[in-house]
Amino acid sequence: MPTALPVPIEFRLPEGWLPARRGEVDPGVAFAAVHPHPDSGFAANITIDGGFPPEEATLVDLADESAQRLREVAESVRVVQRHQAGTADSPALTQRLTFSAVAGDVSRELVQSQVYLALVDTADPHRRAVLRLALTATAAQHDSVVPEFQEFVRSVRPDTGEGA
């Protein structure tokens, strides 16, 4: 069963991307979508998860923890790029990881682009929620699907319940 997000959001999937079937979603992920054209049997995917981290945890701390968790299940994990963005009120961080992992009984060279977004909890403005948006693709397909992931990231916003 997928996990719930700490704050409600709305977003638009890039054209052609499909929501993953319930049994294909990691239990720690709130939402997952897959690219319609796999590369050598591996479908690029977008996932969303998040939570309320400890107040003292920075986005860099959370990104470091994510890389460490990946090292527990994959090989040769490297942080190849990291960039802080956003504002003091609404910070963001992006990072790109490369790694080797077995998927579908085949060892693959994969790339994961992660975006961390900090959002104020509307129920308690003293708490902040952090969302992690991630794109995982083969090294060969990653650069071709990054623009679609960027389009997806730009569409993510808090769901105010007011509709469009």
Your description of this structure?
- The protein has 164 residues and is α+β, with helices and mostly antiparallel strands.
- It has a single domain (9-158), classed as 3-Layer(aba) Sandwich (Protein Transport Mog1p, Chain A).
- It contains two helices and nine strands.
- A seven-stranded antiparallel beta sheet has the order 2-3-4-8-7-6-5, sandwiched between helices. Strands 1-9 form a two-stranded antiparallel sheet.
- A hairpin with a 7-residue loop joins strand 7 (106-120) and strand 8.
- The protein starts with 8 loop residues before the first strand and ends in a 6-residue tail after the last strand.
- The model has no long low-confidence stretch (mean pLDDT 90).
Examine the secondary-structure arrangement and name the CATH architecture.
Answer: 3-Layer(aba) Sandwich
Radius of gyration: 16 Å
Query: What is the number of independent domains?
Result: 1
List the uncertain runs: none
Strand order of the largest sheet: 2-3-4-8-7-6-5
Secondary-structure element pattern, one letter each: EEEEHEEEEHE
- Tally of extended strands? 9
Q: What distance separates the N and C termini?
A: 29 Å
Strand content: 35-45%
Q: What share of the residues lie within helices?
A: 10-25%
Principal-axis shape equals globular
Return the CATH topology: Protein Transport Mog1p, Chain A
Using the coordinates above, name the CATH class. Answer: Alpha Beta
Number of helical regions:
2
CATH superfamily: Mog1/PsbP, alpha/beta/alpha sandwich
What is the average per-residue confidence, as pLDDT, rounded to a whole number? Answer: 90
Largest sheet: 7 strands, antiparallel
Secondary structure class reads alpha+beta
